[in-house]
Amino acid sequence: MKILQRYILFELLKVFGLLVTVLTVMLVFVGVFQEAQQKGLGPAQIVQILPYLIPSLLPYTIPSTLLLAVCVVYGRLSGDLEVIATKSAGINPLQLLMPAFLLSIVLSIGSLVLTDQIIPWAIARMQYTISQALEDIFLDQLRSTHLISEPSQGYTIQVMDVRGKKLISPTFQLSRGKDTPITVQAQEATFNFDLKNEEVVLNLKKCQISADDETTFFVEEEKHPIPLPEQISRINARHLSLDAIHQKLEEMDQTQEQEILKREMKATFRLITGEFDQLGNVGTHQFAQKIKENERTRHKLSTEMYTRYAFSTSCFFFVILGAPYSISQAKKQFLTTFFLCFLPILLMYYPLALLILTLCKNGEIDPTWTVWIPNLVLMIAGLVILRRVLKH
Predict the structure, then answer these.
(1) pLDDT 10s digits, 3-49
(2) For residues 22-56, b (16+ Cβ closer than 10 Å) or e, as one string?
C-alpha cells in the first residue's frame, strides 16, 4: 500500500502542479493588465508588481485545480480497475484516498498562511510600487503644468518649478467643507505617500499661512496631509493579517470607550453648570453616526477573520466530495467528471458562501459558525458518495 500511496501522491502533485501553474499564469496576466489600466502604470511598474499578484490569486486557484487533479487521478485509477483490485485484495479504498486527504490538509494550511502573512506583505509591496509610480506621475504633472487641482478632495497645488523631488515656491490651497479656506505659501516643499493612513503628506518649509479672514502667520516648517489620489485603492480587510485585524478591533474598542467617556463628561459638565438647554447639543447625532460606522467596520473585520479559516480549508472539503465522486464515475472522461462535480459547487457552494458573507458583513448573522455552512454541505454530500463507494 505504501508504494501505491506514493504513486497516487506523486500523480496528484504532478497534475496539480501543472494545472495550478497554467491557471495562475493566465489569471496573473489578466490581473496585471487590469491593474495597469486602472492606475496608469507603465511597463516598468507592470514588471515590478507581477510577482506580488501571484500570491493573491493562489487561494482562488488552489481549490479548483486540486479538485480537477483529484478527478483526473482517481478517475483514471478507477477506470483502470485499480480500486476494484484493491477491494478484492481486502484493502479498504480509504487507503487510496489518504494521499489526497493529506495533500488537501497541507494545501489548506498553506492557503491560510498565504492569506494571513504572504498576501498582506505582497499587497503592501505592490501598493508601495504603485505609490512610487504615482509619485513620478505627480511630479511629471507639476513639471509640465505647474498645477494640480482636486476640487472633489478640496485642495490645489501650484508651483514655480520642480527640481528632482523638491517643489520650488509651492502654493497650497486647502478648502474642506464649511471650514475657512487656508492658503499656504512656502519656499520649498517635499512630499511622501502614507499608504497606512491613506494620505499624501506635504512637508513645507518657511511658510506663510493665511486665511480668508486676513489672519496671517509665519512658520519655519509645516506638514499638511491631503487624501490619496483616487488611483490608489484603499486597503481592505483582506489585505490585513489576523494579528492586524485583532489589533484594529482592539483599537476600535478603545476609541469607542474614549468617545463615550468624553460625551458623558460634556453632559456632566453642562449639568453642573446649569446649561440644561445645551444638553441636546453634545454631539448625539455625530456620536450615533460614529457608533454605526464602527459597528459596520467591526462586522466586516470579524467576517474576514472567521472567513479566512473557513475558505482556507475548502481544499479539504473539495477533496472529500471530488475523490469518491470521481471513483464512482470511472467510466466517464475526467473532464466530464470534473464539470459534473464542479457545477454544483459553482451553483450552490459559492452563491451560498457569498450570501452568508453579505449577511455577516451586515451584522444579521453570526460569522463564528455560519461561514462553515458551505463546507458542511460539501462534507455531507461527499460522505454520502463515499459511503456508496465503500459499500459497492
Answers:
(1) 888 999 999 999 999 989 888 888 877 767 666 666 556 677 677 77
(2) ebbeebbeebbeebbeebebeeebbebbeebbbbb
Within 10 angstroms of residue 390's Cβ, the number of other Cβ atoms is 14
Q: How far apart are CA 193 and CA 135, in angstroms?
A: 8
Instruction: Compute the residue count for the chain.
Output: 392
* Nearest-angstrom CA–CA distance, 45 and 126: 9
Q: What is the CA radius of gyration of the chain?
A: 29
Place of cell 455531507: 380
In the chain, where are the structural domains located? Answer: 2-134+313-391, 146-227, 237-298
Strand (E) positions, the chain?
147-150, 155-158, 161-163, 166-168, 171-174, 182-194, 199-211, 216-227
Taking a C-beta distance cutoff of 8 angstroms, is the pair 122, 55 a contact? yes
Give 236's DSSP letter. -
Residue 232's closest CA among 49, 52, 38?
Answer: 38
Read off the pTM: 0.73
How many secondary structure helices (H) and strands (E) does the chain include?
12, 8
Burial environment of residue 173 by CB neighbours within 10 A (0 to 12, 13 to 18, 19 or more) = middle
Q: Which three cell numbers stand for residue 106?
A: 497541507
- Please report the DSSP string for 50-95 in residue order: HHHHHHHHHHHHHHHHHHHHHHHHHHHHHHTTHHHHHHHTT--THH
Q: What is the pLDDT of residue 188?
A: 83
Q: Report the alpha-carbon distance of residue 6 to residue 300 in Å, rounded.
A: 43
